[in-house]
Design goal:
- By secondary structure, the chain is an alpha/beta fold.
- It contains five helices and nine strands, in the order ββαβββαβαβαββα.
- The strands form three sheets. A five-stranded mixed β-sheet has the order 7-6-5-8-9. A two-stranded antiparallel ribbon has the order 1-2. A two-stranded antiparallel sheet has the order 3-4.
- A hairpin with a 5-residue loop joins strand 8 and strand 9.
- Helix 2 packs parallel to helix 5.
- The longest helix is centred in the C-terminal third of the chain and has 16 residues.
- The N terminus is likely disordered.
Length: about 200
C-alpha cells in the first residue's frame, strides 16, 4: 500500500522494461517490484582512469551515448549535457556519463582531446571507452537506450540514440529525455534535484 510507514509515492517514476511504462511507487513498493538495475561495467574515462559501477554506487547518474566523429545529434547532446553539468558539476552525489558508441575509434587520448575541444570541464562528467560489447550491452539491456527496439536489436548493429537516461542511487532507471532539446535537459535537471532529496 502506498504511503505506509510514512513513505511517499515518488513523483519521479520507476522504469522496469524497454517499453518505458512508468511506475509511480513509494520506496518500499519499488524495492519489491522494480527488479531492473544497471548492470556491472568496467571502462576507462578520458583521463585513463578506471571507471566502473563502483563509481556511481549510492549516487544518481545521467547517461548518454555519443561518439567523437558524430556531426549530427551528438554536438547538440553535449550542449544539453552542459546544462546539467552547469547545475551539478560540484555535487559529489551526481555523476554524468557519456559512453562512446565507437570505442574502437574513441580511445582515451581521443576522448581527452574531444573533452578539451568541447570544454567539458566538470570533474564528475566522464567520457567512457572500452569494450564495444560491454558498452552496447549496457546501452540496450541496462539503459534501454533505444527504447522502441528493446532487446530485439542485434547487439552488433550500430547504436545511435539521442536519449539521456537518469538513474537513481540504487541503479534503477528513473527518467528518459531527448538529449537534443533544451526543455528536456531543463526537465532532467528538475527531476535530478527531486531525486537528490530521496533517501
Amino acid at each position: 500500500m502506498a504511503c505506509q510507514n510514512g513513505d511517499q509515492v515518488s513523483s519521479i517514476p520507476y522504469y522496469n522494461s524497454p517499453d518505458f511504462s512508468p511506475h509511480f511507487l513509494d520506496k518500499i513498493e519499488a524495492k519489491g517490484r522494480i527488479k531492473h538495475h544497471i548492470d556491472h561495467f568496467y571502462l576507462k574515462d578520458q583521463h585513463g582512469k578506471i571507471f566502473s559501477q563502483d563509481n556511481v554506487k549510492g549516487k544518481i547518474h545521467l547517461a548518454q551515448f555519443i561518439f567523437t566523429r558524430c556531426g549530427n545529434i551528438c554536438p547538440e547532446m553535449i550542449s544539453q549535457m552542459k546544462i546539467v553539468a552547469k547545475k551539478f558539476s560540484t555535487n559529489p552525489e551526481v555523476e554524468m556519463l557519456s559512453y562512446s558508441v565507437t570505442p574502437w575509434i574513441d580511445d582515451v587520448p581521443t576522448l581527452k582531446k574531444f573533452a578539451e575541444e568541447k570544454k567539458i570541464e566538470a570533474p564528475n562528467w566522464h567520457l567512457l571507452t572500452g569494450s564495444k560489447s560491454v558498452i552496447y550491452n549496457l546501452a540496450r539491456k541496462s539503459y534501454f537506450a533505444e527504447e522502441e527496439l528493446g532487446y530485439t536489436k542485434d547487439s552488433t548493429e550500430f547504436l545511435h540514440t539521442e536519449h539521456m537516461i537518469l538513474v537513481d542511487r540504487d541503479g534503477r532507471i528513473r527518467g528518459i529525455y531527448n538529449g537534443t532539446l533544451p526543455l528536456e535537459a531543463e526537465q532532467c535537471v528538475k527531476d535530478m534535484e527531486k531525486l537528490l532529496t530521496e533517501n
